[in-house]
Amino acid sequence: MTAGRVTAADVTAGRARSLPLRALLRVVDALAAAMLAADLVVVAASVIARFVFDAPLDWADDVARGLLVALSFFGAAGAMARDESLGVRFFVDRLPAALRRAVDALVAVLVAGIAGTIAVHAIGMGVLTVGQTTGSGLPLEWTFYPMGGGAACMAVFALVHVARLRLRDVALAVVVLAALAGGAWLLGEHAPSTGALMFWSFALALAGGMPIGFALALSALMFVWNDGSLPGAIFAQQMARGIDNFVLLAIPFFLLTGALMEASGISVRLIALLERLVGRLRGGLNVVMVLSMVVFSGMSGSKMADVAAVGSVLVPAARRDGQNPGRRWRCSPPPRSWRRPFRPAST
After folding, report:
1. Rg of the chain's alpha carbons, rounded to an integer?
2. Which of 8, 144, 165, 184 could share a disulfide with 125, CB 3.0–4.6 Å?
3. Where are the beta strands (DSSP E) in 267-346?
4. Which domain holds residue 17?
């Protein structure tokens, strides 16, 4: 390729390199969709069997929670591939361009490392639990192997993003991380306390624009690495236990409700009603979003339900309004649509 000129051969080569990634993303999306459908079916069947036929399914809770764990990680991999991981860009977007690129490269390398660490520990935990069973008799490793597979897909998509960055910025990020690790090793017993490391790693990662989930994972890994007495498999076990919660099984149903509201047009009419009340204010869609959360929280009484249902309705509306709420790696300031009244699409 000549300088400043892109040939047809370069475009063809770029498409050939992206074909495996697109195929992997299709597989990830298909697995996530299948797990979501299976989770809905299992939970619905469990509820019907328990309350209608008075014959509870002993295995249903374990299967549903295992599917939710796997769904969370494969869904996160799909979000990673589309740059839709949620993070705080307020501070990073106000940095000079060169420093912003360096911070983005540092965060990208850390995200790839964290995703790879989760995959290794999850698969290791699956190996350790071979032969163990859940309360209903299902193999316990069935929870950790899909978790490791989803984390491995996240690591692949994160590495692809790292490869798209400038080599100089990536090299600088690796040098900075190596220097920090070497400094912590040299300090030894004089290193900061575990609590201080967890707090500052989370705060700096969040301010640097790292996705919130990875910032939390980095803080937890700081505890595991600095303590030294805990095996890494405990990290994967605690991550699975954080998701393996019966209450969280309601989230797929709220997502389904939000999708049905979006498909049937109910959401558009609801947003139009709220827009008539507050849409003329500065940043109309954001005010509508807050008001929607207030209204929905009064009906559901669950923060998780609010985020699932309202988010699935208002994110498409934000995109129709010209906003792009999912661009995690973007270095540009917020769109102008944030500063103008919202006008919903006509039905």
Report:
1. 22
2. 144
3. none
4. 8-244
